[in-house]
Amino acid sequence: MAARNMTTGPAIPLARFSAQARLRALQSDILELILERDLVPGDPLPTENELTAALGVGRNTLRESLKALQALGVIEIRHGFGMFVAPSNFEALTDGLTFRARLSLRHQGEEALQLVEVRQALESGLVGAAMDRISAEQLAAVEESVNRMEALADAGEPFIEADAEFHRRLFEPLNNDLLISLMDVFWKVYRRIHLELGGPYAVDLQATAAVHRGIYEAVATADKALASERLSTHFDDIRTIIVRTTA
């Protein structure tokens, strides 16, 4: 067993683990400082000198932690202007999920399937609440997206953007910015998965447009159970494509 472990590469020194733990602890301290001072997106952070004094750390260690928080979309560093609490930013989440999904496509697609499952539960579970609040104008906008998808399908052209627009418009009545942002994240990830699986050639455009027409009709007739069922079936189709392609 010892010989086998020797072939896996050099062991990582405990000191490195300790340094990583200290950096994570410092990042947590910076987040706590932002919360304690009641800073909001766009507010400036204390200067580096103020932070090193308040947190009791060296400048280089502080900068490492700040760069990590910037990569996570928590803070924004504007050279020559200072550091600020970043506005809502889902880029880091999008990048991370996209990488995990693409990686999984090379190994049975498990994480890509899990992403589909989360989105399926989210949309099929919330469509009834969206239907309770949807206005005539918003319903007309949903149908407009369907019309656009059908026209593009008839022309043999992919309609990923129109598809995303359909789902976004369907849930706009909830006035939930976090939900819309998460749906946008899922769409960016799915778009990359879609390209990995062969782009427009991986789906039947006419059939996909018809599925969305069916979802719209269920919403238009106020049939919550049917709308939820048809949304769920739509994601079953996406799951089938992933399974078929990665098998």
Characterise the protein shown here:
The chain is mainly alpha-helical. It folds into two domains: 12-85, Arc Repressor Mutant, subunit A (Orthogonal Bundle); 91-246, Four Helix Bundle (Hemerythrin (Met), subunit A) (Up-down Bundle), CATH 1.20.120.530. The chain is 72% helix and 3% strand. The chain is built from eleven helices and two strands; from the N terminus they run H-H-H-H-E-E-H-H-H-H-H-H-H. A hairpin with a 3-residue loop joins strand 1 (75-78) and strand 2 (82-85). The chain is elongated, with a radius of gyration of 23 Å. The two termini are 33 Å apart.
Number of domains: 2
Q: Share of helix among residues?
A: over 70%
> In CATH, what is the homologous superfamily of the largest domain?
GntR ligand-binding domain-like
- Helical segment count: 11
Structural class: mainly alpha
Biggest sheet layout:
2 strands, antiparallel
Radius of gyration: 23 Å
What amount of the residues lies in strands? under 5%
Shape: elongated
> What is the average of the pLDDT values?
84
Distance separating the two termini: 33 Å
- Poorly predicted runs are 1-7
| Count of beta strands | 2
List the helices and strands and how they pair.
Elements: H1 2-6, H2 14-36, H3 48-55, H4 59-71, E1 75-78, E2 82-85, H5 91-104, H6 110-133, H7 136-154, H8 160-171, H9 177-196, H10 205-220, H11 224-246
